[in-house]
Structure formats: C-alpha cells, structure tokens
Amino acid sequence: MKRPNILFILTDDQGAWAMRCAGNTDIYTPNLDRLAKQGTRFDNFFCASPVCSPARASILTGRIPSQHGVHDWIRCGSLDRDALGDLKDHPYFANEDKPVRYLDGMTAYTDLLAQNGYRCALSGKWHLGDSMNPQHGFTDWFTIGRGGCLYMQPDVIEDGKLKIEDRYITDLITEHALEDLEKYAASEEPFYVSVHYTAPHDPWDADQHPKEFTEMYRDCQCTATPDEPLHPNRIPTAPGGTGEERKRLLRGYYAAVSAMDAGVGQLLDRLEELGIAEDTLVIFTADNGMNMGHHGIWGKGNGTFPFNLFDTAVKVPFIARWQGKIPAGRVTESMCSHYDIIQTLKELLDLEGELPEGLPGKSFAPVLTGAADTDNHVVILDEYGSSRMIRNREWKYIHRYPYGPNELYHLSEDPGEKENLIGCPEYEEIRCELFDRLQKWYAEYADIAVDGTREAVTGLGQMRRPGLYSGGKPVYAETAKYQK
C-alpha cells in the first residue's frame, strides 16, 4: 500500500499564541483555523532551542543542539562567495565565504523518507549551510540564498542559480510549493513537500507586505497580547517599543502571518483540487516561538541577554491533519517537542531503516492517532547556549551556566511566568530536584565536543568556516546584526 504524501509547513518566529484558533482575537488566520478543525492542534508543543538554525537542525535530525553543534543562527557558510559572479560584492553577501554543510554526516528524517521511496522537495528557507545544493534526500530545491531575507527583494536560489527577485517572498514560496504538488500528484511514489516560509520574521514595516494584509490591521488596537514595560535585559539592537510603536510592530507581524495563512489556504485548496487531500499528512509548525511585547521582550530567545526561555519563546504551534487517521477538531494538552518528530514519522509511516542511537526524542504517533491525551514526556528540556530549561506541567526551572541568573516558576499558579521564585527557601527542594534531572538528561544526551555550555554563544550568530574550527566545534562571531 502506498504511504501517505506529506505536506510540511514551517514558519519562522511564530509563537504558539499567534493564531486565532489558539485564542488570539486580534489575528486573522482562517486557513490555520480550518486546518485545526480538520486535524489535531497541540497546546503544549516546544522547540528544541528558541532561535532559528538550532531549532531547524533539531527538527530534521532529532538531535538537541548539544548533539548537532548548531547553537545559534548561522551567520555564514550558506554560499561560495567567489562563485557569485556579479553578485559577489552585493552587501547581502558580505558575511559569506565558503559553503559549509552543518548537518553533514547526520541522519535527517528526509534522508529516511528518500530511502523509503519519497520524492522530497523544499520550497523556502533552509539556513543550515550550503544553500546552493540540495541535501538530505531533497531533489527539488527552491530556497533563500542566506538565512533570512527582505520580503520584497529576496535573494533566492532556483535551478542552482542565485538571483534577487522583485516579488513578495511569501508568494514565491507558495507558488513553487504549488508547482511541486502539481508535479508529484500523479506519481505512484509518495511525496514530501517542505514549505518553509520566512514569515512572520521581521521586517514588519508596511512597505514589506501587501497592502491587503497591512490594511487588515490598520485599526487593530492590539488587545490580545500583554502591554508591558520593556524588559531590562532586552538587547539594544532588537526592535520594540510601547504605545503606538508597539501597535505598529504587532500590526506588521500580524500582516506577515495573515499573508502566510493565505498561502497555506492555497496549498490546502490545491490538495483538494488534485484529489489527494485524503492521502496527504499535513503538518504545520514553526521553528521557534516569539515574544512580541510579552514580558517586555521583542524577539525570541536572543531578544534578551542572558537568553530568555519563557514559554512565549519556546512554545510553537503544531497542527497535524491526516483524514481518517488523526482525529478532527481535537486539541491536545500533551507535551511534545520538535526533537520527537523523527521518531514520530518513522512510527506513523512505518518507515524502514534505523535511526542513530542516542536520540532523546520519543514518538508521539500514539498522541496523534489516539483518542485520549497522554503526555509524550513528563518533562520538556530546552537549551540556548549556556542557558537550559526543564519544564513539567507544574514547574519550570532555568539554569544559566556558570553563574546564573537562574529562574524558577510555579506554572500551575503562575502561567504567565511573572514571579521568579529562585532563592525562596520553601522551594529549594523542588529546584534541586529539577536541576538534578536536567543535569542527568544532558549528561546522557549531550556530546561533550559540541556541548552548548562550553561555547561562547552570544545570540549574534554562529560562524564555522574551514580553517577556523576543528572537531566539529563552532566558532562564534563577536558582532552581527540582530537575529537574521
């Protein structure tokens, strides 16, 4: 029997809160809401690291950052600058030198899919090195030249050539994914199409998004998210503001989400038109969460220094639809993580082939297909450089090596993470139990050669170039533009 097709949609910097079906009354996401009604939505799904490249590497490989060695957004290694011709001296590519494949030698779930007869296509952001060349089972490859890009003048790679387009990148990503669906629909082989939107990453200026979407929010008063004073640890290069500036930024963010949502609608419609909707597993998620004024922070984990690991930064949307297999209209409270995806797809699709030993994840296929909510993990762990988090339903503990500051939150009493209980004698036993479990977990799974607590991760970008590293150990830049 033919395995199901897969449409995997990944957004960039979309918090779990940024959908109407998740309770946000300011935002318009009719197609994500439609997908949630037809499938199962998770309320407690987590990224492995609250920043782009490490999170994406963990989604693909099932490894935590302290196993795959990608600890920050990748600042270089996407392109061979000497091969760019007339674009060599374009300011877009000033940080580029030679391409690096950051996941070389690691098994991604797309490798497993290709080995099981899937035709794999990427349309959108890669940001894991060597953007010019397809990797890890992909044969069709339309991507971004660097990590991020402007919405209206994106640098893209198509048919192995780099060019700068004069069109809206969200539309370009959608159109190439639609072409992939058309091409694969009649094939006897199952397909996997990854649609990696750059939305809703900044910029959020009105001139970066189509007028129909910016006008949608022109009068939005932005009451669905907290209006809080700026966080004292926010980094100076982060966007942010209060009053009217806060509303301007949120309106731009919402416009980016709604434009992306329209693209999702086109993809879902095309599956219906091609008669393959029932035979296609659709997954929607984001690489990491996002603070948009939450806690007074504008950004993900690197919106502050030291890094923050608030739920708004580490929780991501996750919706799965497979008609007849996954219950429709269900919302699950089960706690699961991106590092579980590789095992989940292997079990759900009955894929042949072995996974590497020592992966921390666990299949949540029974959560997807079962009638009852059952926690996939008793605890969830997360990391960004030397900052690590352990979280269960009642408590969250954040430990920053080597000197802190550390944080402890009683989530069942304080879901907004407002009162840091660190240092309170009555909770010291709880803190010690959580810290002990965190240390044992990382001692079991972290690779000492790429352990994030031993690296100078600043949130300003990771560089790993030939001649500047050995043994897989990354080298970090001292300065870079905020969260590209």
Automatic annotation (TrEMBL):
One of its GO terms (molecular function) is arylsulfatase activity. The keyword Cell division does not apply. Keywords: Calcium, Hydrolase, Metal-binding, Transferase. Residues 224-244 are annotated as: Disordered. Residues 4-350 form the Sulfatase N-terminal domain. Belongs to the sulfatase family. This is Sulfatase-like hydrolase/transferase.
